[in-house]
Amino acid sequence: MKFFIDTANLEQIKEAQDMGILDGVTTNPSLMAKEGITGTDNIMKHYVNICNLVDGDVSAEVIATDFEGMVREGEALAELHEQIVVKLPMIKDGVKACKYFSDKGIKTNMTLVFSAGQALLAAKAGATYVSPFIGRLDDISTDGLNLIAEIRMIYDNYGFETEILAASVRHTMHVIDCAKLGADVMTGPLSSITGLLKHPLTDIGLEQFLADYNKGN
Ligand code: E4P
Protein backbone atom coordinates (compact mmCIF):
# COMPACT_ATOMS: atom_id res chain seq x y z
CA MET A 1 0.00 0.00 0.00
CA LYS A 2 1.39 3.39 -0.95
CA PHE A 3 1.23 6.28 1.53
CA PHE A 4 0.65 9.75 0.10
CA ILE A 5 0.39 12.85 2.26
CA ASP A 6 -2.50 15.20 1.52
CA THR A 7 -1.07 18.65 2.11
CA ALA A 8 0.81 21.55 0.55
CA ASN A 9 2.72 22.16 3.80
CA LEU A 10 6.42 21.66 3.05
CA GLU A 11 7.41 20.97 6.68
CA GLN A 12 4.84 18.21 7.02
CA ILE A 13 5.84 16.73 3.67
CA LYS A 14 9.48 16.75 4.82
CA GLU A 15 8.59 15.11 8.13
CA ALA A 16 6.79 12.25 6.35
CA GLN A 17 9.57 11.95 3.78
CA ASP A 18 12.20 11.78 6.54
CA MET A 19 10.38 8.80 8.10
CA GLY A 20 11.18 6.93 4.88
CA ILE A 21 7.61 5.76 4.32
CA LEU A 22 6.28 8.41 1.95
CA ASP A 23 5.36 7.44 -1.61
CA GLY A 24 3.90 10.71 -2.86
CA VAL A 25 1.86 13.85 -2.27
CA THR A 26 -1.63 14.99 -3.20
CA THR A 27 -2.70 18.61 -3.13
CA ASN A 28 -5.76 20.55 -4.15
CA PRO A 29 -6.55 24.27 -4.53
CA SER A 30 -7.95 24.41 -0.98
CA LEU A 31 -4.77 22.91 0.50
CA MET A 32 -2.67 25.42 -1.47
CA ALA A 33 -4.81 28.32 -0.22
CA LYS A 34 -4.48 27.00 3.36
CA GLU A 35 -0.70 27.47 3.07
CA GLY A 36 -1.18 30.97 1.61
CA ILE A 37 -0.02 29.85 -1.85
CA THR A 38 -2.10 31.82 -4.36
CA GLY A 39 -1.67 32.90 -7.99
CA THR A 40 -0.70 30.56 -10.82
CA ASP A 41 3.03 31.36 -10.75
CA ASN A 42 3.36 30.77 -7.01
CA ILE A 43 1.33 27.59 -7.21
CA MET A 44 3.48 26.25 -10.07
CA LYS A 45 6.68 27.05 -8.11
CA HIS A 46 5.25 25.34 -5.05
CA TYR A 47 4.61 22.15 -7.03
CA VAL A 48 8.27 22.12 -8.06
CA ASN A 49 9.33 22.65 -4.42
CA ILE A 50 7.18 19.70 -3.39
CA CYS A 51 8.61 17.50 -6.16
CA ASN A 52 12.12 18.38 -5.01
CA LEU A 53 11.28 17.20 -1.47
CA VAL A 54 9.83 13.78 -2.27
CA ASP A 55 10.67 10.80 -4.47
CA GLY A 56 7.18 9.82 -5.64
CA ASP A 57 4.17 11.10 -7.54
CA VAL A 58 2.83 14.60 -6.83
CA SER A 59 -0.75 15.32 -7.89
CA ALA A 60 -1.30 18.82 -9.29
CA GLU A 61 -4.88 19.87 -9.97
CA VAL A 62 -6.17 21.70 -13.03
CA ILE A 63 -8.55 24.62 -12.47
CA ALA A 64 -10.18 24.65 -15.91
CA THR A 65 -13.46 22.80 -16.30
CA ASP A 66 -13.47 22.56 -20.11
CA PHE A 67 -11.50 20.02 -22.15
CA GLU A 68 -9.23 22.50 -23.96
CA GLY A 69 -8.45 24.36 -20.75
CA MET A 70 -7.70 21.14 -18.88
CA VAL A 71 -5.38 19.98 -21.65
CA ARG A 72 -3.57 23.33 -21.68
CA GLU A 73 -3.16 23.45 -17.90
CA GLY A 74 -2.38 19.74 -17.57
CA GLU A 75 0.36 19.92 -20.18
CA ALA A 76 1.91 22.92 -18.42
CA LEU A 77 1.77 21.08 -15.09
CA ALA A 78 3.25 17.89 -16.55
CA GLU A 79 6.15 19.89 -17.99
CA LEU A 80 7.03 21.26 -14.55
CA HIS A 81 8.53 18.01 -13.28
CA GLU A 82 8.56 14.31 -14.16
CA GLN A 83 6.88 13.47 -10.83
CA ILE A 84 3.75 15.51 -11.60
CA VAL A 85 0.46 13.64 -11.96
CA VAL A 86 -2.31 15.69 -13.59
CA LYS A 87 -5.33 15.79 -11.30
CA LEU A 88 -8.65 16.13 -13.13
CA PRO A 89 -12.20 16.55 -11.83
CA MET A 90 -14.73 13.78 -12.39
CA ILE A 91 -16.87 15.59 -14.96
CA LYS A 92 -17.43 14.76 -18.63
CA ASP A 93 -14.59 16.94 -19.92
CA GLY A 94 -12.38 15.61 -17.13
CA VAL A 95 -12.92 12.06 -18.34
CA LYS A 96 -12.16 13.16 -21.90
CA ALA A 97 -9.00 14.93 -20.74
CA CYS A 98 -8.01 11.85 -18.74
CA LYS A 99 -8.19 9.72 -21.90
CA TYR A 100 -6.16 12.36 -23.77
CA PHE A 101 -3.39 12.34 -21.16
CA SER A 102 -3.45 8.54 -20.77
CA ASP A 103 -2.94 8.16 -24.52
CA LYS A 104 0.06 10.50 -24.26
CA GLY A 105 1.57 8.52 -21.37
CA ILE A 106 1.01 11.34 -18.85
CA LYS A 107 -0.08 10.17 -15.39
CA THR A 108 -3.53 11.22 -14.18
CA ASN A 109 -5.55 11.27 -10.97
CA MET A 110 -9.34 11.50 -11.30
CA THR A 111 -10.53 13.44 -8.29
CA LEU A 112 -13.84 14.17 -6.54
CA VAL A 113 -15.03 10.61 -7.07
CA PHE A 114 -18.04 9.62 -4.97
CA SER A 115 -19.55 6.59 -6.74
CA ALA A 116 -18.57 3.25 -8.24
CA GLY A 117 -19.90 4.40 -11.62
CA GLN A 118 -17.55 7.37 -11.63
CA ALA A 119 -14.66 5.06 -10.73
CA LEU A 120 -15.59 2.77 -13.62
CA LEU A 121 -15.43 5.74 -16.01
CA ALA A 122 -12.03 6.76 -14.62
CA ALA A 123 -10.66 3.27 -15.26
CA LYS A 124 -12.16 3.20 -18.78
CA ALA A 125 -10.39 6.50 -19.50
CA GLY A 126 -7.09 4.95 -18.39
CA ALA A 127 -6.59 6.97 -15.21
CA THR A 128 -3.42 6.17 -13.28
CA TYR A 129 -5.24 6.87 -10.01
CA VAL A 130 -8.88 7.21 -9.00
CA SER A 131 -9.59 9.23 -5.84
CA PRO A 132 -12.75 8.23 -3.96
CA PHE A 133 -13.28 10.77 -1.14
CA ILE A 134 -14.20 8.56 1.80
CA GLY A 135 -14.20 11.20 4.55
CA ARG A 136 -16.59 13.47 2.67
CA LEU A 137 -18.98 10.54 2.16
CA ASP A 138 -18.82 9.75 5.87
CA ASP A 139 -19.60 13.43 6.50
CA ILE A 140 -22.98 12.95 4.82
CA SER A 141 -23.77 9.68 6.61
CA THR A 142 -22.77 7.48 3.67
CA ASP A 143 -20.21 4.71 4.19
CA GLY A 144 -17.03 5.85 2.41
CA LEU A 145 -15.27 2.54 3.02
CA ASN A 146 -18.06 0.68 1.25
CA LEU A 147 -17.18 2.64 -1.89
CA ILE A 148 -13.57 1.43 -1.64
CA ALA A 149 -14.83 -2.17 -1.43
CA GLU A 150 -17.13 -1.70 -4.43
CA ILE A 151 -14.39 -0.18 -6.59
CA ARG A 152 -11.93 -2.93 -5.57
CA MET A 153 -14.43 -5.59 -6.65
CA ILE A 154 -15.19 -3.91 -9.97
CA TYR A 155 -11.54 -3.28 -10.84
CA ASP A 156 -10.58 -6.85 -9.92
CA ASN A 157 -13.46 -8.27 -11.99
CA TYR A 158 -11.99 -6.74 -15.12
CA GLY A 159 -8.31 -6.38 -14.29
CA PHE A 160 -8.36 -2.58 -14.51
CA GLU A 161 -4.91 -1.24 -13.65
CA THR A 162 -6.10 2.13 -12.32
CA GLU A 163 -4.88 2.40 -8.72
CA ILE A 164 -7.47 3.06 -6.03
CA LEU A 165 -6.24 6.12 -4.14
CA ALA A 166 -8.38 6.38 -1.00
CA ALA A 167 -8.68 10.14 -0.50
CA SER A 168 -10.23 12.36 2.12
CA VAL A 169 -8.77 10.02 4.71
CA ARG A 170 -9.21 11.65 8.08
CA HIS A 171 -7.73 9.31 10.71
CA THR A 172 -5.78 6.14 11.39
CA MET A 173 -8.78 3.78 11.27
CA HIS A 174 -9.52 4.97 7.74
CA VAL A 175 -5.95 3.99 6.82
CA ILE A 176 -6.22 0.54 8.40
CA ASP A 177 -9.66 -0.17 6.92
CA CYS A 178 -8.50 0.94 3.46
CA ALA A 179 -5.53 -1.42 3.79
CA LYS A 180 -7.88 -4.29 4.72
CA LEU A 181 -10.07 -3.54 1.70
CA GLY A 182 -7.14 -3.49 -0.70
CA ALA A 183 -6.86 0.19 -1.60
CA ASP A 184 -3.62 0.63 -3.53
CA VAL A 185 -2.87 4.04 -2.03
CA MET A 186 -4.16 6.23 0.74
CA THR A 187 -3.76 9.97 1.06
CA GLY A 188 -4.34 11.74 4.34
CA PRO A 189 -3.00 14.36 6.71
CA LEU A 190 0.31 13.79 8.53
CA SER A 191 -1.63 12.88 11.69
CA SER A 192 -3.25 9.90 9.93
CA ILE A 193 0.26 8.55 9.27
CA THR A 194 2.05 9.39 12.53
CA GLY A 195 -1.03 8.25 14.48
CA LEU A 196 -0.28 4.70 13.30
CA LEU A 197 2.82 4.75 15.51
CA LYS A 198 0.94 5.13 18.74
CA HIS A 199 0.32 2.30 21.19
CA PRO A 200 0.51 2.66 24.98
CA LEU A 201 1.99 -0.84 25.35
CA THR A 202 4.88 0.19 23.09
CA ASP A 203 5.60 3.18 25.34
CA ILE A 204 5.25 1.16 28.55
CA GLY A 205 7.36 -1.69 27.16
CA LEU A 206 10.11 0.62 25.99
CA GLU A 207 10.19 2.43 29.31
CA GLN A 208 10.54 -0.91 31.12
CA PHE A 209 13.28 -2.17 28.80
CA LEU A 210 15.30 1.01 29.30
CA ALA A 211 14.80 0.91 33.08
CA ASP A 212 15.93 -2.73 33.23
CA TYR A 213 18.96 -2.03 31.02
CA ASN A 214 19.98 0.86 33.24
CA LYS A 215 19.90 -1.38 36.36
CA GLY A 216 23.16 -2.97 35.25
CA ASN A 217 24.83 0.30 34.23
C1 E4P B 1 -7.56 14.32 -2.40
O1 E4P B 1 -6.75 14.34 -3.28
C2 E4P B 1 -8.04 15.52 -1.70
O2 E4P B 1 -7.02 16.48 -1.68
C3 E4P B 1 -8.38 15.29 -0.26
O3 E4P B 1 -8.10 13.98 0.15
C4 E4P B 1 -9.65 15.88 0.22
O4 E4P B 1 -9.75 15.63 1.60
P1 E4P B 1 -10.77 16.41 2.54
O5 E4P B 1 -12.12 15.86 2.33
O6 E4P B 1 -10.26 16.12 3.93
O7 E4P B 1 -10.67 17.87 2.18
UniProtKB/TrEMBL annotation:
<keyword id="KW-0570">Pentose shunt</keyword>
<dbReference type="GO" id="GO:0005737">
    <property type="term" value="C:cytoplasm"/>
</dbReference>
<dbReference type="InterPro" id="IPR013785">
    <property type="entry name" value="Aldolase_TIM"/>
</dbReference>
<keyword id="KW-0704">Schiff base</keyword>
<keyword id="KW-0808">Transferase</keyword>
<dbReference type="InterPro" id="IPR004731">
    <property type="entry name" value="Transaldolase_3B/F6P_aldolase"/>
</dbReference>
<dbReference type="GO" id="GO:0005975">
    <property type="term" value="P:carbohydrate metabolic process"/>
</dbReference>
<dbReference type="InterPro" id="IPR033919">
    <property type="entry name" value="TSA/FSA_arc/bac"/>
</dbReference>
<dbReference type="GO" id="GO:0006098">
    <property type="term" value="P:pentose-phosphate shunt"/>
</dbReference>
<dbReference type="InterPro" id="IPR018225">
    <property type="entry name" value="Transaldolase_AS"/>
</dbReference>
<comment type="similarity">
    <text>Belongs to the transaldolase family. Type 3B subfamily.</text>
</comment>
<dbReference type="GO" id="GO:0016832">
    <property type="term" value="F:aldehyde-lyase activity"/>
</dbReference>
<feature type="active site" description="Schiff-base intermediate with substrate">
    <location>
        <position position="87"/>
    </location>
</feature>
<protein>
    <recommendedName>
        <fullName>Probable transaldolase</fullName>
        <ecNumber>2.2.1.2</ecNumber>
    </recommendedName>
</protein>
<dbReference type="GO" id="GO:0004801">
    <property type="term" value="F:transaldolase activity"/>
</dbReference>
<comment type="function">
    <text>Transaldolase is important for the balance of metabolites in the pentose-phosphate pathway.</text>
</comment>
<comment type="pathway">
    <text>Carbohydrate degradation; pentose phosphate pathway; D-glyceraldehyde 3-phosphate and beta-D-fructose 6-phosphate from D-ribose 5-phosphate and D-xylulose 5-phosphate (non-oxidative stage): step 2/3.</text>
</comment>
<dbReference type="GO" id="GO:0042182">
    <property type="term" value="P:ketone catabolic process"/>
</dbReference>
<dbReference type="InterPro" id="IPR022999">
    <property type="entry name" value="Transaldolase_3B"/>
</dbReference>
<keyword id="KW-0963">Cytoplasm</keyword>
<dbReference type="InterPro" id="IPR001585">
    <property type="entry name" value="TAL/FSA"/>
</dbReference>
<dbReference type="Pfam" id="PF00923">
    <property type="entry name" value="TAL_FSA"/>
</dbReference>
